[in-house]
Amino acid sequence: MDYEPSKKAIWLAANSGDAPRLDAIMQEHTSLLDLPPHWSPEYPAAVKAAKHRIQQLRAERDAIIAQYEEKALDGVGAVQS
Asked: How far out from the chain centre does Cα 50 lie?
């Protein structure tokens, strides 16, 4: 992530219509990390492919959350007193 998203932007994204995709990204990312044979030096092509896919997933996640950053800064979803 090139920037540190606000907690509010993450919350807005996680509680939006994009939540199912964010969940799927998280699950796929975790599954890639949980595959020990892919991280073995004996399988350099698999390691490269897994790292590339993780980068793609992170970029997609960051793009989704970035959409909510402006809303977070504008106070959308803020508690009104």
From this structure: 15
